[in-house]
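Much of what follows relies on a compact textual record of a protein's fold. Here is one such record, which you should read through line by line:
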Amino acid sequence: MSCTCLARLTRCSGLVQKTVVPLLFQQGNFPELTHFDRKLFGQSRRQYSSSRFDPDSSGRPTTWDSFGIWDDRIDEPILLPPSIRYGKIIPNVNLMKVGCASLIGQRKENEDRFQVSQMTDNIHYFAVFDGHGGSEAADFCEKYMEKFIKSFLAEEDNLETVLSKAFLEIDKAFAKHLHFFPNGPGLNSGSTATVALLRDGIELVVASVGDSRAMLCRKGKAVKLTVDHTPERKDEKERIKRSGGFITWNSLGQPNVNGRLAMTRSIGDLDLKKMGVIAEPETKRILLHHVHDSFLALTTDGVNFIMNSQEICSIIGQCHDPKEAAQRISDQALHYGSEDNSTIIVVPFGAWGKHRSSDTHFSFSRSFVSSGRWA
């Protein structure tokens, strides 16, 4: 059955927002449950309705498992309008199943912040912020980033453009905020920011500044969605030098901007803005393939420094659910010797649990921690 016919059927049937209908997809030759329910659970823990299809009056919902598509790996309804629009099956991403964990490590305080929320009817919001020089910048991002994104969504449909504008504006707003506290503790405060927006359950857009990362697991392999902004990158180092800044290396061989900042882009760090440290993010847009994509992981450098992307991907793939996965990764980072705060968000997609790997992956940086060279 073509998408045009499906759309005509939808109109003629007078379907409303919460209608459930059997849908026959030509490619798979099997009936699928289609369901569209815009709201799930938000940060306020308020529950929204989620009706299911019950063909045999057994009281048990018909899910993906009932049709034997992906064994017992997903138990979510299908989003009807996006599935028709994109011509492929799109399951709902349940925010209640997203895994989050944040551990303080060996630091005096946890300067990491994270957020998971239903931003609009069809857009999910995921973000991690790793503060440095105090938690003021990370706190500011946690409180206002979503609001800035919403304001630009009202006038712009391109999510990459929306995120770029929001990052630049929140950096300006933080500078204005500190202007009223000239002797406050936040003048040297800064934060990484890695934000992911998921629209219609299929369009994933990621924006990032700093060294917090976003990674997609596709067919069991890690696909990096962000690249760290450090002085080791030639393009970043050249911008710093053109702006009058300089690069130094500490005793561990790590490059720093003007001897104090390990990254070349951030929110805040106002004293280094004239030295080429910018808040403009790099963005990436990708369409999900739920038959292949297992999850999205957002991590701070307390995890990244000690575990490589494929190792994170493999460990998460062995876990029963995203909540267990997030806790295991953060615990593992500390067990391996990470002294920084370790924060992770794990967002499950259609192929959750489908691609499991028993391969052993090793992070080279962990050997330095084990030998005490990073002490």
